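Subgroup meeting minutes
Present: P.N., E.W., G.H.
Scribe: E.W.

1. P.N. recapped why we're keeping a running log of single-chain structure predictions: easier to compare across weeks, and new members can see raw inputs and outputs side by side.
2. G.H. added today's entry (186 aa).
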Amino acid sequence: MLKLAQRKRTEQIVLVALFSTLTWIGAYLRIELIPPVPFTLQNFMVIMSGILLGLRYATWSQLAYLLLGLAGVPVFSQGGGLGYVFRPGFGFILGFVGAAAVVGGLSKFIRKPTFLNCLGLALSGMVVIYLIALPYLYFINKLILNQPVAFYQLALGMAPFFVGDAIKSVAIAGLIPTLWRRLREL
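Output recorded in log:
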């Protein structure tokens, strides 16, 4: 039988791998609420990892996801490999690491999750993703693709995604309190 500390460490490693894998699966789960804009469930999984795993393990789960993709494993929604760094959407993947860290860090202040504080955590994670992704998208368009686009135009182009992310945030806020209680019972 594993020692208690060793068991806890094994459980944490499994959870890191699980949420890295769930983010991978989320990249391929597409929902078209506003055609032709596809919504994936990646950021849903990222926020869930932050709330449930905390700062360190949520960040590790998203770093594992990022490194797998850069190593060439097709975990990103359009494949993988080092060349993905030059794709406009790569900023979102970088944002996943930041969001997992911020949400994970903020989640330690939650003693008992409620719909409202989970909604606040989810929305804060979504904001972090966009704060990283939009500047990245701007610079890739300007410097790499030589297609300069005004920053406000990029933000406007993201409007349909904001709607989808707000819906995902509400879903997360509805799921987490029950899931949190169930996980504590294990």
